[in-house]
Fold:
Amino acid sequence: MPSSEISILFAISCLFIASCSNQASINGTVDYLGDANLILEEKPIHYKYAPVNAETLSVSEDGSFSLSLPVEEPTIQTVHLNDEFYPVYLTPSNDLNINITRSDFPENVQVKGYSGNWGERYNNYLKEIDGLDSQILQEVEKVKVGKPHRLTELSKKKYEIAQKHFQDTPFNEYYMKAVGEHLVFKVRSIE
Structure:
């Protein structure tokens, strides 16, 4: 085989490998979808002014779904089912298997394919903060009318739980969000 043909085959192989390595795939099952949609969403950096990239996953009659998408760098996208969401950490050439039980969504999503226990950490975080957000909302109302409250105590508890599960992980932005919310609540409580 002439060297020019070998060079062309090598170049085509490199292009094929490069194009494949920037693909992530998500496949899995949902036990019941009903009239809801299963949506994969990527929020832009500035969520108020940039369009949201969302793709409705095609779910077959047996509840299975599959999607391959380009991923240039590690990113967090969210799987939405009705008004609830579950984050997934995507990296180039990553294959995730996600199993959803609709009645337990998002608290009990099973994710396989991570290099770490990121899905388990998120599930444990949700269990630990169960009910905390509604308590925080009740305390916000107390702040508004000048009643004694536990707003900063509860928001601190939430960010400490987020810190335990997310700091220095791919889900670190959820820890930072909880810290930011705590700071906002601190300011509200002294206004």
